[in-house]
């Protein structure tokens, strides 16, 4: 008997207890143990089998680490069929999260009981695959096609109460899974309940699968797995037999298993978990984090304060004067109203958060006892230095002084205090109470326990925290500045901003770069360009001024109703602003550029090459620890399509050597912009990939 499954006899009942921490994933040992357990129960003359999980959960799914490796018997689909076909009564008792293959094992059992806190789901589509152990065939038979399509295409976790109503569970009882399971099995035996196999139920009634397929594909912005899963559910209704449906499910499952999207999504799954595990923080205790302060309650400060309040922290928000404080409070209340409307908080919680947890201030004395301060004032070094000098005077020893700066030098900010070891960058993204990314910017003198506290804050706020080093724009904005520039060059050379946006949404980005600029406010990029020009730009750099002209006309994007696009009140999205093309054409003429055609494919290739090349520089210089840190930054902060894994995963998939060749070709026209990253050249020379680098760096 495998150690991952413990076998025990309780009277007529054979009990199979899974013990494969942390989540009882259905790896080889577990599958072997379950199969052997069923066989032993049958040969020993037991009347029923109870399956449950020890530790924190029932089976949370197939073992994802086995994906892509040669299959080992018994496979999960065969195991599920074996469980279902047992002549004994098989019951599963669920707690924790019965997900993917876990729910499929449960659906192969003849009866299912769960504790009230249990959650069930088929989240395979998020990994680029579909339920491949009978889930798309059995779930529609117990819950109906509509509910099955919803669960399978969204991958959402369904609470025990809802699962009971859907027929996925037969009973919900509070208690220890072994105890409630044993009592239930005994009751079934006593009442002479029949063996009940889902696979023997009649095929469910079909729906209009073609229109569901189209709608799901559109919603997924190019993600294949949810749409393919629709076809698999279709087979549950239309295949001649249950077994034929299982065969169809397997074919579709294997297509997805062999896809690039599966590689991208699995990379995202593991990287998301690996990104905040820093070896140097092992054993380092974070500092206390009971109360925080935010300086400046504009767009970012209000969002950061909202996120902190929702996470249960007390927040003191400091503004310049009473009027600014009132405006800031209004912004925070507006954000919390949104949370109230979406049912995330109750009216009572709203009242407590706004009246008790939040304190508005205009005097620095109010900050004397806070554990951590996040500065979110104007992006101006002079103003930031004034604030940090003041914080240095009033904050208690050991308080952490953080800046939310987007681009400025955190070392320079730290140097204006007497305690640079307590200074760090905490770069949130807009809107800060919604966006998942947090760049933890470690300056030269930042103490390790301050870094640990940055990550602890990120975890508390449910962010994906990425360690970044100090440079202009850290990881994300530095790379953004480069691929955005590549887009601007293509505009000068003949592409339109609208074509570029379309090509990139076609690639899977939530929005194109010009629509994003309109959303963020064109004044932000304008300020950066002015700063860079004032600092002195390299004469070889191609600059453009049409966007400045747009700003000079008072057009800052969505907030002024006009930018690259024109926005009509009450309408979603905008329509191309014709003035933009006039400005661009005038600049091309002034520069003597004859515009040429770009294909969407060329646009994507060039944009991505610029992104990858800069990302490789960011990793090579140690600004990001590993390629996966860049991938997670782009995924969680910049709308990069998750199913492509991130820019460096994408680069590995398309091939680094080809990409480097392209960069060298582009360099023939603009050698200054297209300087190949030394790390990229090195990897190509060594025949290694970014993923190899991820594996080599802890
Ligand atoms: N296989 C292998 N490892 C897994 C795993 C799985 N299915 N699920 C989780 N893990 C690992 C995580 O990588 C993590 O490892 P680490 O500690 O080394 O980083 C550890 O288990 C704990 O996971 P979390 O940090 O995510 O723990 P949480 O408590 O936050 O979440 C969870 C638990 C909800 C179960 C979450 O881990 C999760 O969603 N897991 C994936 C579930 C899933 O997608 N199942 C379907 C798998 S595909 C399948 O079943 C195919 C079948 O249809 C044929
Ligand atoms: P904003 O202009 O909306 O808000 C700034 C706020 O700071 C204003 O409410 C202002 O009254 C207040 N303020 C200015 N000086 C102050 C002082 N001395 N003391 C107290 N309050 C003061 O600016 P926004 O967009 O919120 O940006 C703030 C910071 O966050 C900047 O450093 C910016 O680069 C950074 N950031 C901005 C992002 C964005 O998308 N807007 C994203 C990530 C970071």
UniProtKB/TrEMBL annotation:
Location of this chain's protein in the cell: Peroxisome
Domain 3-hydroxyacyl-CoA dehydrogenase C-terminal: 473-567, 603-688
Predominant place of localization: other
Superkingdom in the source lineage: Bacteria
Ranges where the 3-hydroxyacyl-CoA dehydrogenase NAD binding domain occurs: 292-468
Pfam families: 3HCDH (PF00725), 3HCDH_N (PF02737), ECH_1 (PF00378)
Pathway linked to the protein: Lipid metabolism; fatty acid beta-oxidation
Family matches, as InterPro entries: 3-OHacyl-CoA_DH_NAD-bd (IPR006176), 3HC_DH_C (IPR006108), 6-PGluconate_DH-like_C_sf (IPR008927), ClpP/crotonase-like_dom_sf (IPR029045), Enoyl-CoA_hyd/isom_CS (IPR018376), Enoyl-CoA_hydra/iso (IPR001753), NAD(P)-bd_dom_sf (IPR036291)
Keywords linked to the UniProt accession: Fatty acid metabolism, Isomerase, Lipid degradation, Lipid metabolism, Lyase, Multifunctional enzyme, NAD, Oxidoreductase, Peroxisome
Catalytic reactions on record: a (3S)-3-hydroxyacyl-CoA + NAD(+) = a 3-oxoacyl-CoA + NADH + H(+)
Family note: In the N-terminal section; belongs to the enoyl-CoA hydratase/isomerase family. Belongs to the enoyl-CoA hydratase/isomerase family.
Descriptive protein name: 3-hydroxyacyl-CoA dehydrogenase NAD-binding domain-containing protein
Organism name: Aliisedimentitalea scapharcae
Lineage: Bacteria, Pseudomonadati, Pseudomonadota, Alphaproteobacteria, Rhodobacterales
């Amino acid at each position: 008997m495998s150690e991952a499954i413990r076998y025990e006899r309780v009277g007529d009942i054979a009990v199979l207890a899974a013990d494969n921490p942390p989540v009882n994933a259905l790896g080889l040992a577990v599958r072997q143990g379950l199969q052997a357990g069923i066989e032993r129960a049958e040969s020993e003359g037991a009347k029923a089998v109870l399956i449950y999980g020890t530790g924190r959960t029932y089976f949370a799914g197939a073992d994802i680490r086995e994906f892509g490796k040669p299959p080992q018997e018994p496979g999960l689909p065969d195991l599920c069929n074996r469980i279902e076909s047992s002549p004994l009564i098989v019951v599963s008792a669920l707690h924790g999260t019965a997900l993917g293959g876990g729910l499929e094992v449960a659906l192969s059992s003849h009866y299912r009981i769960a504790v009230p806190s249990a959650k069930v789901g088929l989240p395979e589509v998020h990994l680029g695959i579909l339920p491949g152990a009978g889930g798309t065939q059995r779930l529609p038979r117990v819950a109906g096609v509509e509910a099955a399509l919803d669960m399978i295409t969204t991958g959402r976790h369904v609470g025990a109460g809802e699962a009971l109503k859907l027929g996925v569970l037969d009973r919900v009882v509070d208690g220890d899974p072994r105890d409630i399971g044993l009592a239930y099995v005994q009751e079934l035996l006593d009442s002479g309940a029949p063996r009940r196999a889902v696979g023997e139920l009649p095929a469910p009634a079909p729906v209009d699968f073609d229109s569901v397929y189209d709608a799901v594909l559109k919603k997924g912005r190019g993600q294949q797995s949810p749409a393919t899963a629709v076809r698999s559910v279709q087979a549950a209704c239309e295949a001649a037999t249950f077994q034929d449906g299982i065969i169809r499910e397997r074919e579709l499952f294997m297509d997805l298993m062999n896809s690039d999207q599966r590689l991208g999504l699995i990379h995202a799954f593991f990287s998301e978990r690996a990104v905040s595990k820093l070896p140097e923080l092992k054993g380092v205790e974070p500092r206390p984090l009971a109360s925080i302060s935010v300086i400046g309650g504009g767009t970012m400060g209000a969002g950061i304060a909202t996120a902190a309040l929702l996470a249960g922290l007390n927040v003191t928000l400091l503004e310049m004067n009473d009027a600014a404080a009132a405006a800031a409070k209004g912004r925070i209340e507006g954000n919390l109203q949104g949370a109230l409307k979406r049912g995330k908080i109750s009216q009572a919680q709203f009242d407590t958060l706004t009246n008790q947890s939040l304190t508005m201030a205009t005097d620095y004395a109010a900050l004397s006892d806070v554990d951590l301060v996040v500065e979110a004032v104007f992006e101006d070094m002079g103003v930031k230095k004034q604030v940090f000098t003041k914080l240095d005077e009033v904050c208690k020893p050991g308080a952490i002084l953080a800046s939310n700066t987007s681009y400025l030098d955190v070392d320079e900010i730290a140097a204006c205090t007497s305690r640079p070891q307590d200074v760090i960058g905490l770069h949130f993204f807009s809107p800060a109470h919604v966006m998942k990314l947090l760049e933890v910017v470690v300056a030269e003198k930042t103490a390790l326990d301050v870094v640990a506290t940055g990550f602890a804050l990120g975890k508390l706020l449910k962010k994906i925290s990425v360690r970044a080093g100090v440079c202009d724009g850290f990881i994300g904005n530095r790379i953004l500045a480069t691929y955005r520039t590549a887009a601007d060059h293509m505009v000068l050379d003949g592409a339109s901003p609208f074509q570029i946006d379309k090509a990139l949404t076609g690639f899977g980005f939530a929005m194109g770069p010009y629509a994003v600029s309109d959303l963020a406010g064109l004044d932000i990029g304008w300020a950066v360009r002015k700063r860079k020009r004032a600092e002195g730009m390299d004469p070889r750099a191609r600059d453009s001024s049409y966007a400045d002209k747009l700003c000079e006309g008072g057009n800052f994007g969505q907030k002024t109703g006009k930018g690259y696009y024109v926005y009509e009140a009450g309408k979603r999205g905008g329509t191309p602003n014709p003035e933009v093309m006039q400005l661009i054409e005038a600049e091309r003429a002034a520069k003597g550029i004859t515009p040429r055609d770009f294909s969407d494919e060329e646009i994507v290739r060039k944009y991505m090459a610029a992104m990858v090349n800069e990302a490789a520089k960011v990793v090579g210089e140690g600004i990001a620890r590993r390629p996966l840190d860049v991938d997670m930054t782009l995924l969680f902060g910049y709308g990069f399509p998750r199913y492509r894994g991130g820019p460096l995963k994408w680069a590995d998939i398309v091939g680094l050597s080809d990409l480097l060749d392209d960069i060298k070709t582009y360099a023939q026209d603009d050698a200054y912009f297209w300087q190949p990253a030394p790390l990229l050249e090195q990897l190509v020379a060594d025949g290694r990939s970014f993923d190899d680098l991820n594996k080599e760096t802890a």
